[in-house]
């Protein structure tokens, strides 16, 4: 596939596509813009904030995912890191909000740092958190992670897992990444299999070694998950355990919230609020779910919850000293074209963010102070029920993206171009 592909998309096709759609957009934006101004909003300020918002695309989500029952690839998948970066380049050219990629190692080992960096930076793409993988055995590995990694009873296995995490940091340093995300599959599937206290202690000590390897300006993001692949206990099952580890490790360690890593009906927005209050929220994995870690398109199942989470994020960013967050998608696309799915996810995230920016938090505080529940609800829902799509679209347009990225993706027939360039059987590395 030629490197010109993205440039072609940028210059000519995009302009004529936008010309075709600009009249209708202008009408919608005029209408909403006026409403927002009448309600006292600084529309230019809102556009600026939305324009600045970037969500990292996970390198493992550009191919078709699957379940243990099957996988149905859509063709033209990026089979190496360069092609994955080019795919993110296409997304970013369309929506102007996907200017970062999060690598999973060893699924994506950067072999030639200079040329990888050059390709990414040329497409305006940065490297967000790098992810280690100690949940799968690699072809040449001497030790097995079958019974755990950082918590393993055998020192040699733990050493191997620690070494891997340090190597991931080293790769990230070469690319300009500033964070390591650790997600552990460690746990037990049967009562009695684990000594909980010992497993926790071993995990903490392993993480301490990894933490010591972090450069001064790096973060360690500790991700939690209640179950899967282990079904009786996970070594880091919840935000409390993640926070405990992060607190013991030190300032550079924070918690990472993956939306799908909660038991049904957990109040995630409250977790977000408290972690930010403690200045210990480091990153986010966006996805949506009905029952478990379903990894579905962001905003496809529970858009109100997503909005409420963003309300806490917006307030937290304003009122606390919480460090800058790493925003990442972590989804698996089993049925849809992965690129379309990612465009929809990023759009949902921006819609939730834009709505959260519209909330009148001062009035909300007043209503809360007088226990005016009905008014509190009305304030939140006033923002949630505003159709902010023209605002999001205007921010994309101003940055030179497409007026409706998904429609543009289809109009340019990108999937078929990718299939023509890479072949129908081209497979992506990942799960
Ligand atoms: C896990 C978790 C991690 C992701 C792996 C592939 O469930 O969400 O963040 O790296 O899946
Ligand atoms: Mn995750
Ligand atoms: Mn997950």
* Structural class by helix and strand composition: alpha/beta
For the largest sheet, list the strands in their spatial order.
6-7-9-11-12-13
The helix/strand order is HHEEEHEHEEHEEHEEHEHEHEHHHHHH
Categorize the overall geometry. globular
> Strand count, sense and closure of the main sheet?
6 strands, parallel
User: What is the residue-mean pLDDT, rounded to a whole number?
Assistant: 95
Helix fraction, binned, reads 40-55%
The helix count comes to 15
Determine the strand fraction and express it as a percent band: 5-15%
| Uncertain regions spanning at least 5 consecutive residues | none
Calculate the terminal CA-CA distance, rounded to whole Å.
Answer: 24 Å
Heterogens: beta-L-rhamnopyranose, manganese (II) ion
What value does the Rg take, in angstroms? 22 Å
Q: Could you tell me the number of beta strands?
A: 13
Could you explain how this protein is built, in words?
- With 431 residues, the chain is of the alpha/beta class.
- It has 15 helices and 13 strands.
- It has helices at residues 4-38, 43-52, 81-95, 113-122, 155-175, 196-212, 239-249, 268-277, 303-319, 338-358, 361-369, 373-384, 389-398, 405-411, 414-422; strands spanning 57-58, 66-67, 70-71, 100-102, 126-127, 130-131, 179-183, 187-188, 219-223, 233-234, 253-258, 281-286, 326-329.
- The strands form four sheets. It has a six-stranded parallel β-sheet. A three-stranded parallel β-sheet has the order 1-4-5, with helices on one face. Strands 2-3 form a two-stranded antiparallel ribbon.
- α1 packs parallel to α3, α5 (155-175) runs parallel beside α6 and α8 (268-277) packs parallel to α9.
- The protein starts with a helix and ends in a 9-residue tail after the last helix.
- The mean pLDDT is 95.
- Residues 258, 260-261, 293, 330 line the site of one manganese (II) ion.
- Beta-L-rhamnopyranose binds next to loops.
